[in-house]
Amino acid sequence: MNDEAERTGTESVWDYPRPPVVLPSSEHVVIELGGEIVVDTRRSLRVLETSHPPVYYVPRADVAAGLLRAVPGATWCEFKGAAAYFDVVAPDGRVLPRAAWHYPEPTAGFEALVAHVAFYPGRMDRCTVEDETVQAQEGDFYGGWITSWVTGPFKGAPGTRGW
Q1: How confident is the model over 47-92, as pLDDT tens digits?
Q2: Statement: the pTM of the whole predicted model exceeds 0.70
Q3: Looking at the predicted structure, is the pLDDT value of residue 32 above 90?
Q4: How are beta strands 145-146 and 126-129 bridged, if at all?
Q5: pLDDT of residue 9
Q6: What are the strands, taking DSSP E only, across 5-148?
Q7: 162: Cβ–Cβ under 8 A, 6 or more apart, which residues?
Q8: Which of 17, 19, 33, 41 has its CA nearest to residue 116?
Q9: CA–CA separation, 43 vs 45, rounded Å?
Q10: How far, in Å, CA of 40 to CA of 37, rounded?
Q11: How far, in Å, CA of 127 to CA of 18, rounded?
């Protein structure tokens, strides 16, 4: 879906492609943490992949200063390449380990992700898309954002790893 303003119904994650695609989004994405808004953008990217709710990647320039602290280690995505992680340092002083990630050098076809960051919505105080509070994708790895217009079933719950 390229123009969210023209949304007329729901999206099934089973209609999303594999390999995934990266689509620009003008949806209003807000992340709250420690009593403050730490991300407020209409310039995110949505990564859509079969069986997964969308993952929103926000421009690093739209993330509050001092929020991200790089940490060692990486994981590998068969499509996007090596993901590097950040601890998120909340305005109230909490440190949320490895609560955000990015692809500093993504593989071919995913170059748009450079200079963008994804956050695990379940680790933030509140994440919204178009003023709707999102639900976090189950599990502790994928980081999808579930809204009322995205339908599953979703990968991530116990027993779904082999899907």
Answers
A1: 999 999 999 999 999 999 999 999 999 999 999 999 999 999 999 9
A2: yes
A3: yes
A4: unpaired
A5: 77
A6: 11-12, 21-25, 29-33, 36-41, 44-49, 52-59, 68-77, 81-89, 95-102, 116-119, 126-129, 132-133, 135-136, 145-146
A7: none
A8: 41
A9: 7
A10: 7
A11: 26
Residue listed under structure tokens 């943490």: 33
- 52: which 2 tokens? 């997964």
**Where do we find the tokens 């420690």?**
34
Give dist(CA 43, CA 28) in Å, integer. Answer: 8
Residue with tokens 């060692």: 72
Architecture of domain 4-143: Beta Complex (2.170)
83 Cβ neighbours under 8 A, 6+ residues apart? 74, 75, 76, 77, 101, 102, 103
Backbone angles phi, psi at 111, to 5 degrees: -60, -25
Which residues have CB under 8 Å from 52's CB, separation 6+? 13, 16, 20, 137, 142, 144, 154, 155, 156
Place of tokens 């450079």: 114
Tokens at 42, concatenated: 């209409």
Domain residue ranges of the chain, discontinuous segments joined by +: 4-143
What type of residue is 123? R
Please state, in angstroms and rounded to a whole number, the distance separating the CA atoms of residues 130 and 142.
22
